Amino acid sequence: VQLVESGGGLVQPAGSLRLSCAASGFPFRHFYMNWVRHAPGKGLERVSGVTSGGLSTYYADSVKGRFTISRDNAKNTLYLQLNSLKTEDTAMYYCARLDGMRGQGTQVTVSS
């Protein structure tokens, strides 16, 4: 069972990134999936979630209107499009299952 995130990096404020999470070893298409983030000095924050079929989504108020979650069950991949990035979005981003399993994370740094 594995979740592998990618796509993070250094970006200027107002910039964009697209994160990906490749899942393997379990029936991805049957699982609700989340993106969570951990910023320095702060607790873990659930950023977004999507149902197994991709029809229903959740966004934290802090990212609503700027981030978009999606999934491709044929490719066992979860995505998070990050637009209009702010310095406060700087964090390690993880994809995660509801049982707490998550990957190693991908770092997003927003700085001028």
Description:
With 112 residues, the protein is mainly β. The chain is built from no helices and 10 strands. The model has no long low-confidence stretch (mean pLDDT 97). A hairpin with an 8-residue loop joins strand 9 (91-97) and strand 10 (106-110). 29% of the residues are buried. It has strands spanning 2-6, 9-11, 17-24, 33-38, 44-50, 57-59, 67-72, 77-82, 91-97, 106-110. Strands 2-10-9-4-5-6 form a 6-stranded mixed β-sheet, with no helix packed on it. Strands 1-3-8-7 form a 4-stranded antiparallel β-sheet, with no helix packed on it.
Shape: globular
DSSP, total strands: 10
How far apart are the first and last residues' alpha carbons, in Å? Answer: 37 Å
**Helix-strand pattern:** EEEEEEEEEE
| CA radius of gyration | 13 Å
Poorly predicted regions are none
What share of residues are in beta strands? over 45%
Mean pLDDT: 97
Specify the number of helices.
0
* Helical content band: under 10%
